[in-house]
Design a protein that fits this description.
about 1000 residues; mainly beta; twelve-stranded antiparallel β-sheet; seven-stranded parallel β-sheet; 14 helices
């Protein structure tokens, strides 16, 4: 493994012959299919489909045993070569999922077992002029499959590009660049260490190394072979008196030097001090170039400035025999006390965990897909990526360098099923260390990589200490990261990790770590804010801690994309078990903040707002006085890269949009904005709801065109309750059970205490709390009606599923035809301490198409995931209100709603409440959502189901991590609210 990037001379991507064998020893047939490489046969072969497990292996064996049924793919193609004399031919396989054996013209040329790093084979002795047959044989299972037990689909095939290239007999073998930046002076330095092949055996080397960077060219000789110094033999000649050459006790010098002890004067003048010169010289065949005091522009995720470095190997005649080019960034990564510093400044890690996954091709990713992913993350202010849980394609890191991301580069080491033993299992020591070593050797010149991760969920053992020791020696410029070392003790595991990187910490645990006097390392969560289904509640609470407490520096959301697969391209995304894969972990891999097709989920918009480069600090009083304060949340850049627009949200919609001059606010500093008079006038109007600040990019970038919106911030004004009319006792349109009647109502408003369970609601840790309530079924057991001049009071008693009584009292007052004021009072059973919702549900006849509301929007939000939702007047087609989580569940709710209007050919529905309610308008009932296994299984529907809740539980992250925090749970037994319902038929 090396860091050099060689260009393909003979690309081998494209059509290959293929056949799938049941095992490596099975006989081949004469029937070959044609496939497009790179590809995974598991995405198209019915005989060996994708298989999803999280922790368990997909077979019942133990390390290092391999199943007898071991699908093996044979890839074969013929390529015509014109060989160049004096050059070595290399076969490059970007990545092969499984155990790879390579053959050229029937001759074995090597094997590789690391599924996510390239394998290169010198095939010079196997290739011939003209046609050559290249054969790549991939066996799905091997002894190291136990180190690739990541939470993902088990796949097999060739996942990255294949090509041939050639090098001269004497050539560049590796390049290590340290492009350092001194934060105190802003000056840079560069050390380039180059290794060659074909020169290390020579005592006289004429070759030189030429380095070109920043307009400078430096040339140094390649080091020759040097005989290791030894102690001279004493002479046997006694014919003359020998002259003294060494002072007495000269051998003491070795230990005196090592101990940093004072050196006697007579020793200091002695030349050739026992090999010291040898220890400081470059190894044979290498060269080191150092350039100091450089005028450089720093690299950071905010300012990803790159320079081109050219390295040439020049022979004695002045001819360039080999050359490589790479782009470097000058930056420094250090840990000082409890802070991770980049270029001397503490940075907040606004990160996501990312797997290689494409719904149609599995882990085969195009350049276009990689750029689309990173562009989306950049537009949402994500600044860091953990390559969960293996090294990504080098082209992906190139994009991270170029666009600006901090990367935790993670080795392909996860022995989850045998985590308690495999890290201390001697046969696996070499493989674990080698996988870490190869990753570092390949990726160490990327400025985006700021931490090396030893892998994931493989327990903690001697192999991790060994790997960390190797990394720290080979690359002291970056800290080491490994969660397993601190899994049971955040103050321990120092031999294997320089940062505290826990999974799914609770809020109280984070506070305790920050306050602990032993805390001397930064805490960066390697996984948090678990996002399976409708989730990611509490993200704002995490960031309140990260931004206010010492020692806490953010982390990586689990995770970026759903792993749903759609191999047929029919839009029917599938999860574990959908391919007949047994055993499986079902929908556990549907835990991204975007869907598999990169459509953002509402959770990503929550993160976008929290990660905004600009944050408004002012309250309503300041805004009404004509000025607001803001903070530049960036660590390095000022705000000149953004343009700012102000507008006022009103009950009639947004008004008065105006661009304002971007204030000169340095990174991390605060500044002010004076509001234009037009904005101030609108803010003082009775219809005003909030002041909105839109943050947009000022110039074009690879990841976004100019004026791309990257954040919206608000100052919310005090809500003015909408008074409801008094009304009078109804004369008609109210049945004896308290249900109002109207032609547009398919089902009248009735009490509802249940939502379609989210993945978090079903968490094992919640112990079926909500099912135990019995609120999923309410059976009326009796109704009392009390009619008076002030209204009709209908008291309905319900029996929950397990017999507990729920009492619902409704007072109905009539305003006019189809127009009522309803007062709802609900008493829940003794012992009720939590619930999902309290509200009413009604269903409309077909023919409603549009929704408008005043409240939080425009995207779905819940009480503990509403920090980035915006108060305003919103409109949407009803069909677009749903969030189509692959596994159907509660979705599409908007909070803070005081006004609702639904319209269409069937008529109009209006609802008004002085108390902000939670609104859900859907095409499906709770039962329909709970009864479907996939969103695409829900039948087309024109029904409109409306929920208006006075209380609705947050979504939390209880499947992995903290449950919904107590302020967002439904702990009260008594609930009361009032609302107006106005129904109008077609006109």
């Amino acid at each position: 493994m090396h860091s050099l990037r060689r260009e393909p001379e003979v690309p081998l991507d494209g059509l290959w012959d293929f056949q799938l064998l049941p095992s490596p020893t099975a006989a081949r047939s004469n029937r070959w299919a044609t496939v497009q490489v790179p590809e995974l046969w598991t995405m198209r072969e019915p005989a060996d489909p994708p298989h999803y497990t999280n922790v368990p292996m997909p077979f019942d064996e133990v390390p290092p045993a391999v199943p007898r049924a071991n699908p093996t793919g044979v890839y074969r193609r013929t390529v015509s070569l014109s060989l160049r004399p004096g050059r070595r031919t290399v076969l490059h396989v970007g990545a092969a999922e499984g155990l790879l054996r390579a053959f050229v013209n029937g001759r074995p040329v090597g094997l590789s077992s690391d599924s996510h790093l390239a394998a290169e084979f010198d095939v010079t002795d196997a290739v011939v002029e003209g046609p050559n047959t290249v054969e790549l044989v991939v066996s799905k299972w091997s002894a190291v499959s136990y180190l690739e037990d990541q939470d993902q689909w088990w796949q097999a095939g060739i996942s990255r590009s294949v090509f041939l290239y050639s090098v001269p007999e004497v050539h560049l073998a590796d390049l290590r660049v340290v492009a350092d930046l001194d934060p105190a002076t802003g000056r840079g330095s560069l050390q380039a260490t180059v290794q060659t092949n074909g020169l290390a055996h020579l005592r006289d080397v004429e070759h030189t190394l030429q380095v070109e960077v920043l307009g400078r060219t430096e040339e140094v000789p390649v080091a020759p072979r040097v005989t290791a110094p030894t102690l001279p033999r004493g002479g046997d000649d006694r014919s003359t008196r020998p002259e003294p050459r060494l002072p007495a006790d000269f051998m003491d010098l070795v230990s005196l030097n090592a101990a940093s002890a004072p050196i006697p004067p007579e020793f200091r003048a002695t030349p050739g001090m026992l090999g010291q010169q040898h220890r400081s010289s470059s190894p044979a065949g290498t060269a080191v170039v150092f350039l100091g005091d450089l005028d450089v522009r720093p690299w950071s995720a905010e300012t990803p400035h790159l320079e081109e470095l050219v390295v040439r190997l020049v022979d004695g005649g002045g001819e360039v025999v080999d050359e490589t080019r790479t782009r470097i960034g000058f930056r420094r990564v250090r840990i000082e006390g409890p802070d991770l510093l980049v270029n001397g400044r503490r940075v907040l890690i606004q990160g996501v965990n990312r797997h290689d996954v494409d719904p149609c091709t599995g882990r085969v990713l195009s350049q276009e897909r990689q750029l689309a992913e990173l562009s989306l993350l950049k537009r949402c202010n994500v600044n860091a990526i953990r390559t969960a849980h293996y090294p990504n394609d080098p082209s992906f890191l190139d994009l991270c360098d170029r666009l600006g991301f901090y990367v935790v580069d993670e080795a392909d080491v996860e022995g989850h099923a045998f985590a308690s033993t495999i890290a201390d299992d001697p046969p696996y020591l070499g493989a674990i260390v080698e996988r870490v070593q190869r990753m570092v050797a390949r990726d160490r010149n990327h400025p985006s990589v700021i931490l090396w991760s030893l892998g994931n969920e493989t327990g903690y053992g001697a192999a991790h200490d060994a790997a960390a020791a190797w990394v720290r020696h080979a690359d002291p410029t970056r800290p080491v990261h490994y969660e397993g070392a601190v899994a049971t003790d955040w103050h321990g595991g120092r031999a294997a990790t320089d940062v505290v990187c826990p999974m799914y910490p609770t809020f109280d645990a984070l506070r305790a770590y920050s306050a602990d006097e032993r805390t001397d390392r930064p805490l960066i969560t390697c996984e948090y804010a678990y996002s399976q289904g409708n989730s990611t509640g509490g993200l704002a609470e995490y960031w309140e801690l990260f931004e206010s407490l010492p020692g806490l520096q953010g982390g990586f959301i689990w995770q970026f994309t759903d792993h749903a697969l759609d191999p047929d391209g029919d839009g029917r995304h599938r999860y574990g078990g959908d391919f007949g894969d047994e055993p499986n972990n079902g929908p556990t891999l549907l835990n991204g903040v975007v869907f598999a097709d990169l459509t953002p989920k509402p959770a990503l918009y929550e993160a976008r707002g929290l990660f905004s480069p600009v944050r408004l600090l002012s309250g309503a009083d300041e805004a009404l006085s004509g000025r607001v304060r803001l903070r530049n949340r960036q660590s390095f850049a000022d705000l000149s890269g953004f343009e700012l627009e102000l507008r006022v949200e009103t009950t009639a919609g947004p008004l008065g949009a105006v661009l304002v001059p971007t204030p000169d606010v340095a990174a991390g500093a605060e500044g002010g904005l004076v509001l234009p008079a037009s904005v101030c006038d609108l803010l003082r109007s009775p219809a005003a709801l909030a002041l909105t600040l839109a943050v947009r990019t000022r110039g074009d970038a690879l990841w976004a065109p100019s004026r791309t919106e990257v954040a919206l911030q608000q100052v919310v004004l005090p809500r003015r309750p909408v008074p409801l009319p008094a009304g009078h006792a109804p004369e008609a349109e109210v049945r004896g059970d308290g249900a109002v009647e109207h032609p547009v109502l398919h089902r009248a408003p009735r009490l509802c205490l249940w939502r379609a369970l989210t993945d978090n609601d079903r968490s094992f840790a919640l112990d079926q709390r909500f099912v135990r309530s019995g609120f999923f079924r309410l059976t009326p057991t009796g109704t009392d009606v009390d009619r008076s001049a002030h209204g009709t009071v209908v008291t309905t008693r319900y029996a929950a599923a397990f017999g507990d009584e729920v009492v619902h009292r409704r007072t109905v007052r009539t305003i006019g035809p189809g127009d009522w004021v309803l007062r709802e009072e609900v008493s829940l059973p003794e012992g009720t301490t939590d619930g999902l919702r309290v509200g009413v549900e009604f269903e409309l006849v077909d023919g409603f198409e549009q929704a408008q509301w005043v409240g939080l929007g425009p995207w779905e939000n819940y009480p503990d995931r509403a920090a980035s939702a915006l108060l305003g007047a919103w409109a949407s087609p009803i069909d677009d209100l749903a969030v189509p989580y692959v596994l159907p569940q509660e979705n599409g709710t908007r909070g803070g709603v005081t006004e609702l209007r639904l319209s269409g050919p069937a008529g109009e529905v209006r609802a008004v409440s002085p108390t902000p309610l939670h609104l859900n308008v859907s095409r499906y009932t709770v039962d329909q959502l709970e009864g479907a296994a996939h969103w695409w299984e829900l039948p087309p529907s024109r029904t409109t189901v409306v929920h208006l809740d006075v209380a609705h539980r947050g979504v939390g992250t209880a499947l992995l991590g903290p449950d919904t925090r107590k302020p967002y749970r439904l702990s009260s037994r008594e609930h009361a609210w009032e609302w107006q319902l106005t129904l109008t038929g077609p006109r």
